[in-house]
């Protein structure tokens, strides 16, 4: 069983810049390429730095959310400010969250690793709670000993 905790979180808002993922939801290679291309683009054009400059903390949120039957992927930060280029204000609900901790060499590797563990292992094995949709996020929290560390936050409900 993968290591995870259940944590109570207050509701919070993330300001995000996003893209629609066009690959089939079972095409992991296609989805990962679309995500990598998106992150490369927002790093190169300065949008990620612009977003970070508004943040109330050092966390970068890598958010996945279904919106109007579309798979959306966002880079986001916690902030009370707005940005004309931002495509969504993402509301995370108050309640219980499955939290999976991890570390990796890069932000992208961390996000992919945490997503894989959470959806491929933890959510398959848990019996007392269920993910019923809504936004989920890999939260890049910082660097330590040459590695990027963070957590996956998945809102859940009791079964």
Question: Can I get a quick summary?
Answer:
This protein is an alpha+beta fold and 159 residues long. The protein is built from three helices and ten strands, in the order ββααββββαββββ.
Gyration radius, in Å = 15 Å
Order of strands, main sheet, comes to 1-6-9-8-3-4-2-5
Oligomer: single chain
Characterize the overall form: globular
Mean pLDDT, as a whole number? 93
Order of helical and strand elements: EEHHEEEEHEEEE
Instruction: Give the number of DSSP strands.
Output: 10
Low-confidence stretches: none
> How far apart are the first and last residues' alpha carbons, in Å?
19 Å
- How many helical elements? 3
Query: How much helix is in the residues?
Result: 25-40%
Structural class of the helices, strands and pairings?
A: alpha+beta
User: For the report, how would you describe the main beta sheet?
Assistant: 8 strands, antiparallel
Strand content: 35-45%
How is the secondary structure organized here?
Layout: E1 5-9, E2 12-21, H1 28-44, H2 47-52, E3 60-67, E4 70-78, E5 88-92, E6 95-104, H3 107-125, E7 129-130, E8 136-144, E9 147-155, E10 157-158
Antiparallel strand pairs: 1-6, 2-4, 2-5, 3-4, 3-8, 6-9, 7-10, 8-9
């Amino acid at each position: 069983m993968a290591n995870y905790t259940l944590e109570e979180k207050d509701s919070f808002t993330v300001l995000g810049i996003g893209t629609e993922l066009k690959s089939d939801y079972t095409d992991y290679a296609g989805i990962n390429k679309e995500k990598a291309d998106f992150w490369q683009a927002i790093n190169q054009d300065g949008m990620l730095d612009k977003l970070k400059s508004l943040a109330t903390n050092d966390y970068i949120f890598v958010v996945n959310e279904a919106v109007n039957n579309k798979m959306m992927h966002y880079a986001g930060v916690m902030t009370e400010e707005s940005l004309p280029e931002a495509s969504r204000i993402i509301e995370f609900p108050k309640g219980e969250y499955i939290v999976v901790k991890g570390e990796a060499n890069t932000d992208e590797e961390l996000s992919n690793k945490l997503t894989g563990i959470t959806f491929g292992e933890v959510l398959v094995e848990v019996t007392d709670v269920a993910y019923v949709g809504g936004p989920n996020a890999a939260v890049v929290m910082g660097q330590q000993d040459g590695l990027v560390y963070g957590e996956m936050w998945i809102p859940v409900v009791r079964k």
